[in-house]
Design a protein that fits this description.
The complex is a heterotrimer.
Chain A (H helix, E strand, L loop, with lengths): L12 H4 L6 H21 L2 H27 L7 H18 L5 H20 L7 H21 L11 E2 L4 E2 L2 E2 L7 H24 L1 H11 L1 H6 L4 H28 L1 E2 L1 H4 L2 H14 L4 H25 L4 H22 L3 H15 L5
Antiparallel strand pairs in A: 1-4, 2-3
Chain B lengths: L1 H16 L1 H32 L6 H20 L5 H25 L6 H21 L3 H28 L7 H23 L14 E6 L2 E6 H23 L1 H11 L1 H7 L3 H27 L8 H12 L4 H21 L1 H4 L7 H12 L14
Antiparallel strand pairs in B: 1-2
Chain C lengths: L1 H9 L8 E12 L2 E12 L3 E5 L6 H8 L7 E6 L2 E3 L4 H6 L2 E3 L12 H7 L9 H6 L3 H19 L15 H14 L4 E5 L7 H18 L2 E5 L3 H7 L2 E6 L2 E6 L1 H6 L1 H8 L5
Helix pairs in contact in C: 1-8, 1-9, 4-7
Classes of the chains: A mainly alpha, B mainly alpha, C alpha/beta.
Bound molecules: adenosine-5'-triphosphate (ATP) and magnesium ion.
């Protein structure tokens, strides 16, 4: 009844190509942003900020990045953790070498570092495809983590753990343990909103189309004039840029202290991959839904098992792992195209409701 | 200059000056390589027959080793925890369901529901009796092994019903993701059943060191490694015979080439999948036992799968000889690099070195070890 | 089905220009199979050239050589005066060669609109940084190309499936979208590999009409492979006949029809 396209004629191609062509969607997004920026900061406490909102936001960025590579360009990557580590360690090195650099710039530069490394490890994609490439990307995961642990320069010749120094943004401390929950939340949110908007623009334009062409049929793509080399490497670069920013935020804001082999191990790569598969490959919205699901589910499960049933934490952990596995298989069976597709179907139903024909 | 020296000169001089040590390292690499081959073989079997990149292969090895240790400890009469009880029951239940399945899948046996229940009671009862009698190890071990094999077969059946069948005709990446989910399930369940502490797996394999005497010095080789290599090699030969000489084996190869062809051999696809996953499960068990015997059964055992992956890109996802030779190449080069190029990297390279070997190789031979060059068509 | 086609063929007062594409002594082998054996022919500006021949004759391979996907062992190709023996497909594309495929090679995950828009990729100049902002020149460029693509959509009469993912379309429409994607490249030479295979009579008529219109209105040179002899005779200006990798005939439809070798090798065994 309320969710209607009818009557909203698109008078120009520009309107037709807007991100949210339907008025109700536009209103919804404005509302969500208003709540996220203006309401939540007043109420957010330490627990919500640290355990739910921050991980959700930083992993959303990583999921968008990986979705660009896997969902849009069709190159499976299992090296996400490694690229996150690049972002984290780059931000650490930059911050300690140039203490006066603004934190936003630090994080963006870290993204560029990750992009460079991403291009390097994307080179094999020119010769190998599919699962061969997926396995090859594990090389980056293992090598990068090894390097950050092994080469003392990266952690300034201390123990392999790195800790973020306090930094301010617009006069408010956003990094280290002295930062407040609302400030940290808003800082991450800013990156997420800008990042998602840029990503959406990219994937709906020429760049996105050439990625999808490579994904769907790389031979035909080359025959219509797409250069596989540049296109794939661009996907690797931009994907790693996002993932690097996510890693930098994980280090600077979310965790504050990290150790490469713990914070960015291969399970992190799988986690982000799950996010985009369950959320929906080739969908920016799906990246958010998947990240939300994969962050919230363990918390909910744990609260139910330990909180309500008083289970031992270890047992609960094992059950949680098995249940995660079961849920993943279950979701793949029910909707292999993820939440994003479910959402789309729901929208189509809504559009016709209450008269389905 | 120093770098070049460390890269190209001194390692080779070391090899030349200490031939016994070189041979020792080389052999050690070969023996580890055989294990890599075995794990890679598990991947190849499943990929060939069903196109599934089974990331759970490593966890299957862990799961099998855990089951074996659990069964053995139970029968040996170790202090029983609630975990053991639950574990035994679940294994028995899995076996019972599996027996039911066998009938449905291919009339291999005529087991029916009551019999499955009977099978359930039999497993628990049998293990219980063995436990109370207190038999010596050399009798219990074969029972435990058989019990584990049956469990792995039953597991294959369950996987077919619960994961593969509903996902048939899905994209390959979806199937791949489902095996990641499967890996989580197996890991969680394995730990739940048998506990997550490090367990010692002793099935009576020799643990001494064998000393080969050469004119230029003595070469020390661990007997456990040798046994592992022999068992793995035997496994490979058995599989080769199975694939080439038996009807089922030939059908399996047919299915790899063409699903229609497999149908015409008269074996339903489902059966073939169950068989392949069973075989892969048994292969995983052997690998798990060999690895577990030398370094204990714990979560890290599942990581041997990650060691086998570079073998796959080197040898190809579908080539059995590729898996074997690739495993040996990776095993040897990894050991040599670890030992003789130590100064250059300072150790702990085993996680990534194999991947670089495989990638470097692909640069020169994109079709892998035994693959033929394919010209894509459109 | 011959009616619109014949009509258009009847109005053949068009001017055939100079040689645009010259195929010179091409030999292509796959292991022991000789797919193309010393093939030479040429395509002139503004003409419709048909390549015919029995299954496995090497027709598709010939097109693949022309647009750089296969690299022949011997011989060379001259396109608009540039001689080459090997090149990457995207370079052929940038020189103005577009293509449709025997087994539809659309981008399955994308909508009709996006598939045709992807044909404009080469013409779009703004880099990804502009696009990320979706602002100023990048936005303007996107809208201009959208307008162009809409014209193609109107021309091919596929307005109603604009937003449908192509994977869900019936075969005949997929072929039409594929033609749209090729047209979006504004090619000078259009290669069509069995554009009417698997279509019913009505769909074939439509397709014939589109091909003739493209040739007429945009002046595009067309080189097509077709099994339906009726269609070939109606719409083509010239016919090249291949058999087992050899060229056994080259001439106007009438000449080819009366060529004894062609009759023996091809028409004699043809079923359609
Ligand atoms: N990529 C390839 N690898 C190996 N052989 C090939 C390849 N492409 C074509 N061939 C072989 O070259 C020969 C010619 O094939 P082509 O596809 O060009 O025939 P065609 O005339 O298009 O036939 P059809 O009418 O069936 O489309 C065939 O024998 C085919 O098997
Ligand atoms: Mg053909």
């Amino acid at each position: 009844m309320f969710y209607r396209e009818s009557g909203q004629f698109k008078s120009s191609y520009a309107k037709d190509q807007a991100i949210f062509p339907i008025r109700q969607d536009q209103i919804a997004i404005v509302l969500i942003l208003a709540v996220a920026f203006l309401v939540v900061p007043w109420f957010v406490n330490d627990y919500w900020s640290k355990s739910v909102l921050q991980p959700f936001l930083v992993f959303s960025i990583a999921a968008i990045g990986l979705n660009i590579l896997v969902g849009y360009c069709g190159q499976i990557s299992l090296g996400t953790g490694g690229f996150m580590a690049v972002g984290a360690y780059a931000s650490y090195k930059i911050m300690t070498s140039f203490p006066d650099m603004p934190i936003v710039l630090v994080i963006i530069l870290s993204g560029f570092c990750a992009a460079g490394v991403g291009i390097l490890f994307g080179l094999p994609s020119l010769r190998i495809k599919g699962f061969y490439l997926a396995v090859a990307t594990l090389a980056s995961q293992f090598f990068l983590i090894w390097m950050f642990n092994k080469v003392p320069w990266f952690h300034n010749y201390t123990m392999s753990q790195i800790t973020v120094p306090p930094r301010e943004f617009l006069g408010v401390t956003v990094t280290s343990s002295s930062a407040g929950p609302a400030a940290q939340y808003l800082f991450c949110l800013g990156f997420v909103v800008v990042g998602a908007w840029l990503a959406k623009n990219l994937v709906r334009g020429r760049t996105g189309r050439s990625w999808m062409a490579i994904r769907d049929m790389d031979i035909a793509a080359e025959l219509i004039g797409i250069r596989p080399l540049q296109t794939k490497l661009l996907a690797f670069a931009i994907s790693s840029f996002y993932i690097g920013i996510s890693g930098a935020l994980i280090f600077c804001v979310y965790l504050g202290t990290v150790e490469a082999s713990e914070a960015f191990d291969i399970n992190q790569s799988f986690l982000v991959l799950f996010m985009i598969i369950i959320g929906g490959l080739g969908s920016i919205l799906g990246s958010f839904l998947g990240a939300g699901f994969m962050i919230l589910m363990p918390i909910v499960l744990k609260n139910i098992m330990v909180g309500s049933f008083g289970m031992a934490a270890v047992t609960a952990k094992h059950i949680e792992i098995s249940l995660m596995g079961v849920l993943i298989v279950f979701f793949l069976i029910v909707e292999p195209h993820g939440f994003a597709r479910l959402w789309q179907i729901l929208k189509e139903k809504l559009r016709l409701w209450p008269f389905p024909y | 200059m120093e770098l070049l020296q460390a890269l190209f000169v001194s390692p080779f001089m070391d090899m030349w000056n200490e031939p016994a040590f070189f041979i020792e390292t080389f052999t050690k690499g070969l023996l580890t390589g055989v294990l890599y081959s075995l794990v890679a073989l598990g991947f190849v079997l499943i990929f060939k027959a069903s196109g599934v990149f089974n990331f759970a292969q490593g966890v299957m090895a862990l799961f099998a080793a855990l089951t074996l240790v659990g069964l053995l400890e139970f029968m040996q009469g170790k202090d029983m925890t609630a975990n053991h009880l639950v574990g035994m029951t679940v294994v028995a239940a899995v076996v019972a369901i599996g027996m039911l399945g066998l009938k449905k899948v291919n009339k291999i046996s005529s087991v029916q529901a009551p019999y499955a229940l009977l099978g359930f009671c039999a497993v628990v009862g049998f293990a219980w009796i063995l436990r109370t009698i207190g038999l010596p190890n050399y009798i219990l071990i074969p029972f435990a092994i058989v019990g584990t094999i049956i469990t792995m077969i039953a597991l294959a059946y369950l996987i077919e019903i619960a994961v593969l069948r509903p996902l048939v005709n899905q994209e390959l990446i979806i199937l791949f993701m489902s095996t990641l989910g499967l890996a989580y399930v197996l890991e969680g369940v394995g730990d739940l059943l048998w506990g997550s502490d490090v367990k010692i797996l002793d099935i009576g394999l020799p643990t001494d060191i064998y000393i080969a005497e050469f004119p230029f010095g003595d070469v020390y080789i661990e007997q456990l490694d040798m046994v592992a290599a022999v068992v793995a090699a035997a496994m490979v030969i058995i599989l080769a015979i199975f694939f080439n000489k038996t009807r089922i084996g030939r059908a399996l190869r047919a299915v790899a080439d063409d699903h229609q062809a497999a149908m015409s051999v008269g074996i339903p696809l489902k059966t073939i999948w169950v068989i392949v996953w069973s075989v892969a499960g048994i292969v995983a068990m052997v690998a798990g036992v060999m690895w577990g015997s030398s370094s204990g059964v714990q979560f890290s055992l599942s990581l041997i799968a990650l060691k086998a992956l570079p073998v796959l890109i080197l040898g190809g996802f579908t080539s059995i000889p590729g898996a074997i030779v690739g495993g040996l190449i990776i095993g040897v080069s990894e050991k040599l690099a670890e030992v003789f190029w130590y100064d250059l990297h300072g150790g702990a390279i085993e996680n990534w070195f194999a991947y670089f070997v495989a990638l470097a190789f692909l640069l020169f031979r994109p079709q892998g070890l035994f693959g033929e060059k394919i010209i894509e068509r459109i | 089905m011959n009616e619109p086609a014949a009509q258009a063929a009847g109005s053949h007062d068009k001017v055939i220009g100079d040689v645009m594409l010259d195929v010179n002594a091409i030999t292509l082998r796959f292991g022991g199979v000789v797919a193309l054996n010393n093939i030479s022919f040429n395509v002139r500006k503004h003409e419709i050239l048909a390549i015919i021949g029995p299954n496995g004759a090497g027709k598709t391979s010939m097109l693949n050589v022309i647009n750089g996907f296969y690299h022949p062992q011997e011989g060379e190709i001259t396109f608009k005066g540039n001689v080459r023996s090997q090149m990457r497909p995207h370079i052929a594309a940038s020189q103005g060669i577009a293509r449709t495929f025997q087994n539809v090679a659309l981008f399955k995950g994308m909508s009709t609109l996006d598939n045709i828009m992807s044909g404009r990729l080469m013409k779009m100049k703004r880099n990804f940084l502009w696009q990320a902002l979706h602002f100023g020149p990048a936005r303007k460029e996107e809208l201009e190309h959208r307008a162009f693509v809409e014209k193609i959509i109107d021309f091919l009469e596929i307005q109603s499936i604009r937003k449908t993912p192509v994977g869900r379309l019936p075969y005949g429409l997929q072929k039409r979208v594929e033609l749209g994607r090729a047209l979006a490249m504004e090619p000078e030479l259009l290669l069509l590999d069995e554009p009417m295979a698997g279509m019913n009579t009505e769909e074939k008529e439509d397709m014939c009409r589109f091909i003739l219109d493209v040739n007429d209105e945009f002046g595009t040179t067309i080189c097509l492979i077709e099994h339906d002899m009726g269609v070939v005779m109606d719409i083509s200006d010239r016919v090249v006949v291949l058999d087992y990798g050899r060229k056994i005939g080259d001439g106007t439809p009438n000449e080819v029809r009366n060529n004894q070798e062609v009759i023996d090798a091809y028409l004699g065994v043809s079923h359609d």
